[in-house]
């Protein structure tokens, strides 16, 4: 019954035209970034490394190697993983509230499944949708950029330092980063899902989720000492960017990178653990409320 | 005028600085071009980078190119000075000041002052091993890029005046990008302090494994 229901839910999601808005939006953003850097990559390069141009030789050969598929994918992920929660919330926020709005929720629950099972099916369907978005992104942002720009060593620019990763040491980091991004986006999905249970139409949950993501992201990125120790560690948005940790490489005392290493894996695992905990908490509350709820539509 | 002052500071049995420079230059002039293979390490406080396999191309009098053919390397400005011949492109363009012998190493210390007031190089100081006519250390102060220091270790290519190991010390600028651009993940790792980041010296270390000398090299390599 679980698989049957899941298939029905997936069909519902993928039959809706609005589902493809998200896929279209990702393709357009990826394509626009790739086109812009392909034709004006040197300006972008100058913007990033302008303050080092007095110390290092940045000839055309260096710029050509620097702007490679791995870097472009990193830039795209940097941009898109901030916007993607909106696309995820579109589906997760609609999961229960959409049914309630159309008046099909009560009908759906006449099937011989418990409300908890029904919630699990709905949530798994949202998760699969999130994975589909990420797979699409991996294909076009990573493989597409590798095809257009070629591959080379990857330069990761941090606020106070530069990491140079050998190209043979990059791909597994992307696999890990995409895996982590799936969990991060599922956290957003879980919040939208919780709001979806509380609402009778899907606009409210989507807007509420986006507002939370927006406010928390701003708080996470602000450098105000008062928030650093009090609020930031508890915001899920502080941990959603931990996928970048896979691109922070350990180095020896002289600054030589160690292939295959991660600067602080325990910190990433801690962030991952916090996100998983949030998923269980939000989903648990949503299921508890749904089980108690008087379904009238 | 300069040389007359120098005359007093020179030891009685020491060769005049012109002769020392001529002997060093004669050794270096034997090399018309080379392709050297080596491993390069860029040691800068704000850069984490792997050791790179590089090829260094040189063509007389002063063409030099360091290429990491399999990846990316940050090459400091002024790295052309790892080729010692670049100092002697215009041997008559300098006044020489003999500083005598370095007390700890017995290397002869000679300062080169450019005659052209508009030259980028303000001052070069050479530490020369006069037994083998090898430059062991060179310090060059430029108008635009501060001071470079070069230290050489010689081995099997010493007869050509070519080093097995070169350490090139250079000035770096501060590096900082706004967090609004990088969206860093704060993983709690040992972040460098501001004073560490303001450490303005970097090092480029090249360990050469082989040289192919005077086998010809097209100019296109340097374009």
In a nutshell, what does this entry contain?
The complex is a heterodimer of chains A (about 300) and B (about 220). Chain A has helices spanning about 1-15, 15-50, 60-65, 70-90, 95-100, 105-110, 115-150, 170-200, 205-220, 225-230, 235-240, 265-290, and strands at about 55, 155-160, 160-165. Chain A is built from 12 helices and 3 strands.
Describe the structure in your own words:
The complex is a heterodimer of chains A (297) and B (223). Chain A contains twelve helices and three strands, in the order ααβαααααββααααα. Helices cover 70% and strands 4% of the residues of chain A. Chain A has 297 residues and is mostly helical. The mean pLDDT of chain A is 90. Chain B is mainly beta and 223 residues long. Chain B has one domain (2-174, 197-213): outer membrane lipoprotein receptor (LolB), chain A. Chain B is built from four helices and twelve strands; from the N terminus they run H-H-E-E-E-E-E-E-E-E-E-E-E-H-H-E. Chain B has helices at residues 2-9, 17-29, 179-182, 194-197; strands spanning 33-43, 47-48, 52-59, 63-67, 75-76, 94-101, 108-114, 121-129, 134-142, 146-154, 163-171, 201-213. Chain B has a ten-stranded antiparallel beta sheet with strand order 4-3-1-12-11-10-9-8-7-6. In chain B, strand 7 (108-114) and strand 8 form a beta hairpin. Chain B is globular. Classes of the chains: A mainly alpha (297), B mainly beta (223). At the A-B interface, strand 1, helix 3, strand 2, strand 3 and helix 12 of A face strand 1, strand 2, strand 5 and helix 3 of B.
């Amino acid at each position: 019954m679980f698989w049957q229901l899941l298939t029905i839910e997936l069909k519902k999601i993928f039959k809706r035209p609005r589902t493809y808005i998200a896929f279209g939006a990702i393709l357009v953003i990826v394509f626009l970034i790739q086109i812009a850097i392909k034709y004006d990559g040197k300006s972008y390069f100058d913007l990033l490394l302008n303050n080092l141009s007095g110390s290092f030789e940045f000839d055309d050969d260096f710029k050509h190697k620097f702007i490679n598929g791995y870097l472009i994918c990193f830039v795209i992920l940097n941009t898109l993983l901030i916007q993607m929660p909106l696309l995820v919330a579109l589906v997760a926020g609609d999961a229960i509230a959409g049914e309630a709005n159309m008046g099909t929720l009560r009908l759906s629950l006449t099937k011989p499944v418990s409300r908890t099972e029904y919630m699990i099916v709905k949530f798994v369907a949202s998760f699969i949708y999130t994975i589909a978005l990420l797979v699409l992104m991996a294909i076009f942002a990573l493989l597409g950029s590798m095809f257009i720009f070629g591959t080379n060593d990857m330069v990761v620019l941090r606020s106070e330092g530069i990491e140079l990763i050998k190209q043979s040491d990059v791909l597994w980091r992307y696999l890990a980063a995409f895996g982590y991004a799936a969990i991060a986006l599922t956290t957003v999905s879980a919040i939208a899902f919780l709001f979806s249970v509380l609402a009778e139409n899907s606009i409210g949950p989507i807007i509420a989720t986006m507002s939370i993501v927006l406010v928390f992201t701003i708080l996470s990125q602000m450098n105000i000492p008062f928030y650093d120790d009090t609020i930031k560690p508890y915001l899920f948005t502080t941990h959603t960017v931990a996928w970048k940790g896979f691109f922070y490489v350990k180095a020896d005392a002289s600054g030589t990178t160690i292939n295959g290493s991660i600067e602080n894996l325990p910190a990433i695992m801690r962030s991952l653990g916090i996100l998983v905990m949030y998923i269980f908490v939000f989903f648990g509350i949503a299921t508890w409320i749904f089980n108690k709820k008087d379904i009238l539509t | 005028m300069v040389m007359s002052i120098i005359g007093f500071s020179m030891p009685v049995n020491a060769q005049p600085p012109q002769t020392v420079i001529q002997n060093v230059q004669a050794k270096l002039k034997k090399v018309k071009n080379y392709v050297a293979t080596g491993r390069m390490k860029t040691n800068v406080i704000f850069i984490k980078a792997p050791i790179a396999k590089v090829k260094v191309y040189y063509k007389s009098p002063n063409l030099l190119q360091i290429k990491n053919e399999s990846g990316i390397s940050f090459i400091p400005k002024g790295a052309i000075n790892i080729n010692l011949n670049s100092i002697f492109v215009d041997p008559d363009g300098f006044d020489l000041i003999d500083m005598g012998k370095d007390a700890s190493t017995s290397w002869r210390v000679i300062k080169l002052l450019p005659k052209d007031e508009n030259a980028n190089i303000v001052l070069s100081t050479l530490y020369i091993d006069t037994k083998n006519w090898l430059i062991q250390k060179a310090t060059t102060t430029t108008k635009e890029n501060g001071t470079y220091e070069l230290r050489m270790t010689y081995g099997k290519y010493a007869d050509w005046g070519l080093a097995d190991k070169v350490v090139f010390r250079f000035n770096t600028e501060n590096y900082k990008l706004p967090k609004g651009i990088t969206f860093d993940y704060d993983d709690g790792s040992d972040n460098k302090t501001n004073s560490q980041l303001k450490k303005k010296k970097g090092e480029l270390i090249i360990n050469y494994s082989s040289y192919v000398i005077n086998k010809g090299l097209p100019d296109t390599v340097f374009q």
